[in-house]
Structure formats: structure tokens, C-alpha cells
Amino acid sequence: MTRLTQSCRRFTLAAGALSFTLTLPAGALRAQGPGLFDAFAARKQSTSDPVFAGLSFGGYAGILGLRVGGALNFNGGNAADAGNANNYGQYYRCDRFTGCRGYRGPQASYDSGLGIGVGGWNVDMDLLIAPLRSLPIAKSLLLGFSPYAFVGIGGMGINPTNAADTTRATWSYGVGVHHDLLGWLGVNGEARNRRSWGSDSAIAIGSSRAWEYRVGLSISFGGSSGAEAAPRHRGHIMPAALPTVDRFETAESAARTTARILDLAESYVGTPYLSGGTNPSIGFDAAGFVQYVFAREHVLLPRTSHAIAELGEEVSTRIGSLRPGDLLFFGNDGFSIDHIAIYAGHERIIHATASGDGVRYDVLGEGPRGEWFSDHLVTARRIVAEGRERPRVRRDESRGEGELDTPDRAPRAHRGE
After folding, report:
1. End-to-end alpha-carbon separation of the chain, Å?
2. For residue 281, is pLDDT > 90?
3. CATH tag, 251-382
4. DSSP 389
5. How far is the C-alpha of 154 from the C-alpha of 70, rounded, in Å?
6. At how many degrees (to 10) do helices 286-295 and 251-267 cross?
């Protein structure tokens, strides 16, 4: 009965700690910027350590982020799951006087007596730094991989039934890497060195067994500025649902706005093309994609590429004159504007293209598609720049009611390009 009571108490403590860390930040972290929800599996270096499964929530403001989460180890609640108590195995014990040494002792059992074994738990709150989050060009050069580092505090416990409970407060540090798969879906892997606040731990915190390795899937949510998503709209006037206060751009604010626009645009790579589409849940056309991305930074643009081309300042279409964030305008006939793309640097453009089946990158002058876009480039405009006020949305008088851009007629993109 005593063992059952202890098992219940351990299970309640672990489940309560995990629930608290997962429910607390849902609202608070959403306001910080792009959020991440992770589901992961983790294990230490030694194969004798239990495997943990966990969840975490995180949010970023620029390159800095905050993440909280936790994990549990479950088994079948049977001593046979972790080995019989009469079996002996190799272990390590460390202290401040003698260092780490091996010894043979009884194999620990994780039998909870409840039919469900809780072999251990951990909870962490981490401060993250991801230096490439605001540099989509650098991420593209690394094929979409974004490294990060973190330091955190938390707690952990290993709960064998035939040994003392090892619950303790910990601090940790480590590195990881994230890779976007579909914009909103990504994968990540990381290594964490977890250390006890004390030095008399029964677990070899200071040995190589302190390294914990983790792999997981992540789902992005929220927006970079905390603004509500632009509403679905198929007309030629964008509804003024977002704040429309003009803002004078300084060099610093213009650079930050451009970086966030490019980062957000990249997150929608793979979104399908839809004529008249202005929302990622249904798809984008070329002008709808640009309008939506810029609106998330409160830069409100007209509904068609022809009307957008009348805003901002004209810049030379020579590659050396273009800056990331500039808008490039194309015409199927080489003269009349009916397609728009965002310049991402290094001769790359990101756009919603009918011939490419959705939002994607293309390289000007590279291959049949790149050569087509280079040959059909009409003009370029700089919307976000130092010394400029952000434009307000205005009526597009150049086209009739409901008349939108025609799809581009570039050579079709092959699968995998």
C-alpha cells in the first residue's frame, strides 16, 4: 500500500508539472511573435537510460525566444519492462571527492503498481537564440537549416521503485538545428547537457551520460507582429481591418520590417496557387501573396500588381541595384504588368506563381524559368525604405471591378525544382 501511495504521488507530481508548463505559455508566448509547438522524443547517451516523450511551446521575438516544456517516460508498469530486480548491471556513481567510478548493482525496476509505469520526468524553461531567424537569405544558403543555442533551468526525476527517488533541480545548455519542411511544419534536433544544482547527485550528471539527445516535429503558429491574419477577400480593395496609421521609416525600422517580410514570405513556401486567393488557408495568387505578407507588417497595398507598381520609388532592375524586399513586376507580353514577386537577394525571387503551382523561389536568369522572368521583367519598386511613409491601401482605378492579374505563363516548374 505504501508503494502504491508513493507511485501515485510521483505520477501526480510529474503529470501536474508537465500540464502546468504546457498550458501556461499558450497565451503569453503567442504575443512574442512566431510560435512553435514541438512534439519530441529524447534520450541520454547511454542506451540503459529511459526514452522520454514530451511537448513544448515556444515563441520568438526577433532572434530571441522563450520555450517551456516537459517530458515523461512511460512503461507497462511491470518490473520486467526494465529488468528484474535480481539482475545486475553496470552503473556509475559520482561525487565531488572521488569523481565518477563504476560499480555493479541491482537493476532498477520502474513498476508503479498501477499498470502504468512512470520511469521519469523532466521540465525545462529555456532561453533561445537563433541568429538566422531574421536572415532568410542566410537560411536559404544553408538549405533551410536554422541553428540555435539555448540555456535553461528546470527539474528532473528518475523514479525506480527499488531505489531512492532522484528528483532534483537542474540547469542546462545546448545547441540545436531547425529545418522547415512545409513552412508551418518542421523538424528539429538538439543536444542538451543537463546538470544538477547540487554536486552530490546519485546520477552521473558530470559524465558523458549527462548529454541528452532530442528529435522532434514542430508546428509554427501566430504571426511576427501579433496582428490578426488578413481576412479573405477577392475584390480589388483590401478591407482596412488592420491599423492604417502612416509610419515614417528610419533606416533601422525599414531593415527590421524587410527582414520580417522575407521571413514570413518564406514560411508560406509550398502554399498552392489560387487565382483570386489572398489567404494561406485557401491559396494565393501573385498580388494576393504580396498584399498578405506586407499587410502583416501593416504595409497596406492595393489588390493588383498593376496598382502596386504605382507606389514607392522606382529602382533600376539591374541586379546590383536591387535590395532584398524590393518588388519586381513582370508582364506576360513584356510590357503590361500582371505579375509581382518579392526580391530575396542573390538574384532570387519569392512569389506565388501559377506555372510553379504555388509559392516558391526562382532564380533570375537560371534555367528556362529564370530566363523567362528575366526577359519579362518590366520594373521594380521599393516600398519599404528609409525616409518613406508606409503607404495606405487605396482604390485601384486602373482595372474594372473584380478584374485581377492573369496567371504567369513562364515555363512549368518540374517536380523537385
Report:
1. 64
2. yes
3. 3.90.1720.10
4. B
5. 9
6. 130
Q: Domain extents for the chain?
A: 2-221, 251-382
**Which amino acid appears at position 296 of this protein?**
R
Q: What is the C-alpha separation between 180 and 361, in angstroms, rounded?
A: 14
Closest CA to 291 of 246, 333, 232: 232
Closest among 154, 187, 234, 195 to 405, alpha carbons compared: 234
CATH no. of 2-221: 2.40.160.20
- How confident is the model at residue 48, as a pLDDT? 64
pLDDT digits (tens, 9 = 90+) for 316-352: 988 788 999 999 999 999 889 999 999 999 999 999 9
Q: What are the cell numbers at 44?
A: 541520454
Backbone dihedral region for residue 357 (phi beyond 0: left; psi -120 to 50: alpha; all else: beta): left
Per-residue pLDDT reduced to its tens digit, 237-257: 343 344 444 455 677 788 889
pTM tops 0.70 = no
For 100, 134, 287, 344, 416, the CA distances from 137, given in Å and listed in that order, are: 46, 9, 22, 7, 20
Q: Which residue has the higher pLDDT, 242 or 149?
A: 149
> What's 362-386 look like in SS3?
EECCCHHHHHHHHHCEEEEEECCCC
Residues in a beta bridge with 170: 154, 196
Using alpha carbons, select from 167, 174, 123 the residue that is nearest to residue 148: 174
- As beta bridge partners, residue 84 has none
